[in-house]
Design goal:
Elements: E1 2-6, E2 13-17, E3 23-25, H1 35-39, H2 42-53, E4 59-60, E5 66-67, E6 76-80, H3 84-89, E7 99-103, E8 108-109, E9 115-117, E10 124-125, E11 128-134, E12 150-157, E13 160-161, H4 162-167, H5 173-176, E14 182-183, E15 188-190, E16 201-206, E17 209-215, H6 223-231, E18 241-243, E19 265-270, E20 274-282
Length: 286
């Protein structure tokens, strides 16, 4: 299944996207895509409900805004420098174990919402990433069992303000958590839809020019390793997002570096997970 949420900001409703691209409103199912849904067999229950009720579900028009395809989760855990070429372009060593950082969940927006360049920012950058959605509580999970704890996968643009992230004191979280810095979607593809998450093409375009073009087969630490590793340090709850890192081609890596300015258009996609598009806007204080 492909899970979507649609409607005005703050008033999103749950839906599904069918194989033919048709979007259906499944509000009548009675549950939104939150921790309880993922953690109590909601996917299986929704599948059974749809088999009986699909024909009576209202269609969602193509012009209707898509929100993030899940309710704000307990956390977003990100993996840094998880592609060797990206580590090199960042001027950092290839890590011996996964580099972890948090991204504030208040940064989550819909896949095609505007990205707001933060107040005082001069170095807002892009990062196409495969994100994993947890489906079952995970604590001290082995690599062999890691995928049993995954509900599905989703496209994520891990926007980053490099001066806040690298040039200011302390942890990376400051450069990762600005409002609108986590567009997620268009949909969550359930695990059965993605045969091998460690072999997916992913790309990103800036104003029509492809600047990132790689594959998750270049991961330093694959999905199973990352889920298992994180679960050694914290409990992953249903609905939690793990963002698995970005490949070569971010603005920081250009010579001279390239950063977003108002009016820039960023498009990105991952094989099997659709595409998203954000237009950069200047912070206006509203």
């Amino acid at each position: 299944m492909k899970l979507i949420r649609f409607g005005e900001i703050g008033k999103e409703k749950p839906g599904v996207q069918l194989e033919n691209g048709t979007r259906l409103d499944v509000s009548a199912f009675g549950r939104d895509y939150n921790e309880d849904f993922f953690g109590t067999d909601g996917l299986e229950q929704l599948k059974k409900w749809l088999a009986q009720n699909e024909s009576s579900c209202p269609k969602v028009g193509d012009s209707v805004r898509l929100g993030a395809p899940l309710v704000r989760p307990s956390k977003i855990v990100c993996v840094g420098l998880n592609y060797a070429k990206h580590a090199a372009e960042s001027g950092m060593a290839v890590p011996k174990e996964p580099v972890l950082f948090f991204k504030a969940t208040s940064a989550i927006v819909g896949p095609n919402d505007d990205v707001i360049i933060p107040k005082g920012s001069e170095k807002t950058d892009w990062e196409v990433e495969l994100a994993v959605v947890i489906g079952k509580k995970a604590s001290y999970v082995s690599e062999e069992n890691a995928l049993d704890h995954v509900a599905g996968y989703v496209l994520h643009n891990d926007y980053s303000e490099r001066a806040f992230q690298i040039e200011r004191e302390g942890q990376w979280v400051k450069g990762k958590s600005c409002d609108t810095f986590a567009p997620v979607g268009p949909f969550i593809a359930t695990k059965d839809e993605i045969k091998d998450p460690n072999n997916l093409n992913l790309w990103l375009k800036l104003n029509g020019e492809k600047v990132q073009d790689s594959s998750t087969s270049d991961f330093i630490f694959n999905v199973q390793e990352v889920v298992s590793y994180i679960s050694q340090f914290m409990t992953l709850l249903p609905g939690d997002i793990i963002s698995t890192g970005t490949p070569f081609g971010v603005g920081l890596g250009f010579n001279p570096p390239k950063y977003l300015k108002a009016g820039d258009v960023v498009e990105l996609g991952i094989e099997g997970l659709g595409t998203s598009k954000q237009t950069a806007k200047a912070y206006s204080g509203k």
